[in-house]
Amino acid sequence: MTTPQTPAAAQPLLVADGLRKTYHLPGKDTLVAANDVSFTLPTGGSIGIVGESGSGKTTVARMLVGLVRPDAGTVRVDGRDRTAGRRRGRGERLARAREIQMVFQDPYLSLDPRLTARQCLATSLSLHDAAGAQGRIEELLDRVGLGSREAAARPHEMSGGQQQRLAIARALAVNPRVLVLDEAVAALDVSIQSQILRLLVDIRQDTGLALVFISHDLAVVQHVTDETVVMRRGTVVEQGPTERLLTAPENAYTRALLAAVPRRGWDPAAAVRDRGAAPAGGRRSGKAQED
Ligand code: ADP
Ligand code: MG
């Protein structure tokens, strides 16, 4: 492990610098999914990336966690280059996994259907730290509010909210410094959305975990982030303190996104409900009773 060049306090935890990703479409067309995306995240900070569907949010998320190799730009954690694509040993890949974890929109797709919640966490812990696993499993279940009944359940026996709690617990198992949440509450019912958001706020407060909160919905990120990046067609159109963006947006697109979000004192559950149509990805139906 290399030593950071400057003391940890003097540099941000996560630095995305000039990230760019181009996709080649059938024929001669290319599509710039993300262009010159830069932001910093302090230790224990919380940043939102918002924009409509197709604006490049997931592409940025995948570059942050090393699933997509940028055409240009770097991702640094504690001053160490963590950009995907260079030759990496297993040790270095594990080190990055320990630093940045990701939670996806649909937990069901990322959970092994054969494993109970407890087995899922045990598996994840064994990759990194076999010692003391049993105590850690209980601690993680407790941390995300899963009881003994859910601990013994397999994903199909759990509600969407419970599945996402498990996905969060699994991400936390390696004690990451940063959690990237890509539309992590988009598929959940509104009351469950606010439960999961509150859970993440608590975890951040208690553990100093930093969050990258990605959503097409400004209403979802406005109460849980300090800073927000607004993306449109792969480009950052505005970024700054969330508070300032909400009260004095400079960009017309930010204002349009804001127009869809009710004012201060609003009830998030009512706001999402009033909007009516299901967000991209659709809502779950026919699932077990929500938690
Ligand atoms: P968002 O998460 O904001 O909806 P994405 O990052 O998923 O946006 O996509 C940004 C753009 O890049 C979209 O136009 C999408 O179709 C395109 N894109 C994403 N991934 C790929 C891929 N693997 N191949 C080709 N085009 C892609
Ligand atoms: Mg996306």
From TrEMBL:
Signal peptide: none
Domain named ABC transporter: residues: 14-258
Keyword Disulfide bond carried by entry: no
Domain of life (superkingdom): Bacteria
Family annotation (Gene3D superfamilies): P-loop containing nucleotide triphosphate hydrolases
Family: Belongs to the ABC transporter superfamily.
Listed InterPro entries: AAA+_ATPase, ABC_transp_ATP-bind, ABC_transporter-like_ATP-bd, ABC_transporter-like_CS, P-loop_NTPase
ATP-binding in keyword set: yes
Keywords on record: ATP-binding, Nucleotide-binding, Transport
Stored PROSITE patterns: ABC_TRANSPORTER_1 (PS00211), ABC_TRANSPORTER_2 (PS50893)
Region (Disordered): 270-291
Protein name, per record: ABC transporter domain-containing protein
